[in-house]
Specification:
The structure holds two protein chains of two kinds. By secondary structure, chain A is an all-alpha fold. Chain A contains ten helices and no strands. Chain A has helices at about 10-20, 25-35, 40-55, 65-85, 95-100, 105-110, 115-135, 140-150, 155-165, 170-190. Chain B has one domain (about 1-90). Chain B is about 80% helix and about 0% strand. Classes of the chains: A mainly alpha, B mainly alpha. The complex binds zinc ion. Zinc ion binds near residues 21, 47 and 51 of chain B.
């Protein structure tokens, strides 16, 4: 392994290594892109671009280091440099429509006659999920980003600082403010559902 | 009168019960994100054992994190995406 460092790999070897190390991050990366752009096509483009950039710089990527954080960082930079400019203020996406579409498989399931109790529980879960999604989407993109990285992807503060190019102190305060605004948005909903705030 | 005294007393005594709760508030995120040091954890846990408001804010903060980690739906990656990434990479010299 380490004997080979710096030696030219054949293109096949390089491609194989690239796929083995970086493609497993595709799912979280696409989800991150989607939460940033709120658009499937944009997320698609952004992820492709991220992988092409990563491929170009793959020689600088040290094997065994944090591939996920590295890719997230590239994606976030691409988003800031290109997508953010061109993206019109994200129109109010109809979330339930998009997510309903993605989940249509579970809903339709052939059995069809799933017990009503299960169905009911599931749709309550869906409601909460939709509500969390729309509260999150209503946040400024910087706030949305730290919440996704921390709560959904489980990055540490240190990793987040590297991905976002900001000091850890800024990560902490941004996360704190982000959570406060998310809380505010969700509290309205919680009240309407009869929870105590 | 008496109860009023107690409130004020609680807030200001031992130059500051209040500031201790403030410190706890600053540790909330560290605690729920697993970023607090051992000392911070000990300090935090001791405090919330006897301070109901701080105990409650801890519960709320955990709940909030759980809403995102447990309820936000993941979108499904289009099947074509991995294929087109592989294809474009193979074209790249
Ligand atoms: Zn307290």
């Amino acid at each position: 392994m380490s004997e080979q460092t710096g030696k030219q790999l054949s293109k096949e070897e390089k491609d194989a290594r690239f796929e083995a190390e970086l493609l497993p991050v595709l799912d979280p990366l696409y989800n991150f892109a989607y939460r940033l752009t709120l658009d499937e096509d944009d997320a698609n483009d952004l992820v492709q671009e991220t992988y092409l950039k990563a491929y170009r710089f793959f020689d600088y990527f040290e094997q065994g280091t944090n591939a996920k954080a590295w890719l997230f960082r590239i994606l976030k930079n691409s988003f800031i440099n290109e997508f953010r400019k061109k993206s019109k203020q994200p129109a109010k996406v109809d979330y339930s429509e998009v997510e309903g579409y993605y989940n249509s498989d579970d809903v339709e399931g052939e059995g069809g006659v799933a017990s009503t109790t299960d169905m009911r529980t599931e749709s309550v879960q869906d409601l909460i999920g939709d509500e969390v999604a729309s509260a999150l989407n209503a946040l400024p993109v910087d706030f949305r980003t730290v919440i996704i990285l921390c709560d959904l992807e489980g990055f540490t503060y240190e990793e987040m600082a590297k991905i976002l190019d900001i000091p850890i102190g800024t990560v902490r305060s941004r996360l704190h403010r982000a959570r406060n605004s998310l809380k505010e948005k969700l509290e309205k909903y919680a009240k309407s559902m009869g929870y105590n705030s | 009168m008496e109860s009023r005294f107690t409130e004020t007393h609680q807030k200001l005594s031992e130059d500051g019960h209040e500031s201790e709760c403030d410190k706890i508030a600053h540790l909330l995120d560290l605690m729920i994100d697993g970023e607090a040091s051992t000392e911070e954890q000990a300090y935090f846990n001791t405090h919330i054992e006897e301070c109901v408001p701080c105990f409650e804010s801890h519960q709320k903060q955990k709940l909030l994190k759980g809403l995102v980690s447990g309820h936000l739906k993941r979108v499904i990656v289009p099947e074509s995406l991995a294929l087109s990434i592989k294809a474009r990479i193979q074209e790249t010299v």
